[in-house]
Amino acid sequence: MPLVNHSQTIQELYDRLTNKKSSEAKRTEYKEVLNEIVTLNSTSNAFWSGGNSKTALSVKLPIGTIKWYYRVTLMDVRQNYSYNPNESLFSLVSNKHPLFVNNQTSLGVNFYIINDYALSDFYADRNFKLYSDYQNEKTRGFNGICNLTYNNLMICLKNYNLKDGLKAIVEVVAYGKY
Predict the structure, then answer these.
(1) Could you give phi then psi for residue 122, rounded to 5 degrees?
(2) Tell me, what's the pLDDT at 49?
(3) How distant is the alpha carbon of residue 3 from its chain centre?
(4) Which parts of the chain have pLDDT scores under 70?
(5) What is the reported pTM?
(6) Residue 91, Cβ neighbours under 10 Å: how many?
(7) What is the pLDDT of residue 1?
(8) Terminus of the chain with fewer CB atoms < 10 Å: N or C?
């Protein structure tokens, strides 16, 4: 049997080259993409002491992602809070439990989803292109669903508080056919 014939789809050709059996059906499932704790200095610390009041996290979505869930949980910079395994975003969405955010502070952040082309403008405090449906300014922690599935997406957080630093737990779970 020849490796290539002209009636094959690209997917069939890929499957053939990677020795996948065509009977292998892709299943719809959840995959944890990101679960990270980041520190955001106050704006005064960022200015006077060289800290950073902003961060950008790359969202590496697996091929086949249909949509993805995200959760940002905020806490005081001196806290070490973490969710129990059954409270993680992955556990909640994959078990179809209600989503919640257990914020540990009354402080907030600015949240943006951008592509990596806008990253230098974000860090330089210039106007930057963002996906307006996926921004949340002066907000405490929250969760959401994003339908963008580009391979160069970033979650950006900015602490706008002059004197108080923050920590943020940032979680991303992809949903798709893998």
Answers:
(1) -60, -50
(2) 83
(3) 39
(4) 1-9, 13, 20-25
(5) 0.85
(6) 16
(7) 46
(8) N
Q: Give the number of other Cβ atoms within 10 Å of residue 117's Cβ.
A: 11
CA atoms within 13 A on the CB side of 96: 1
**Tokens read off for 114:** 């951008």
Place of tokens 């005081």: 76
CA distance 16 to 6: 14
Distance CA 156, CA 146 (A): 14
Kind plus residue range of the DSSP H or E element containing 94: helix 89-94
What whole-number distance in Å separates Cα of residue 77 and Cα of residue 86? 24
Q: Strand, helix or coil at 85? A: helix
Give the pairing type, strands 54-59 and 28-40. unpaired
Q: φ and ψ at 86, to 5 degrees?
A: -80, 0
Helix (H) or strand (E) holding 76: strand 65-76
Tokens found for residue 135? 């921004």
Please choose, from the candidates 51, 42, 75, the residue with its C-alpha nearest in 3D space to the C-alpha of residue 161: 42
- Report the amino acid identity of residue 147: N
- Report how far apart, in Å, the C-alpha atoms of 144 and of each of 16, 70, 124, 134 are: 38, 5, 27, 9
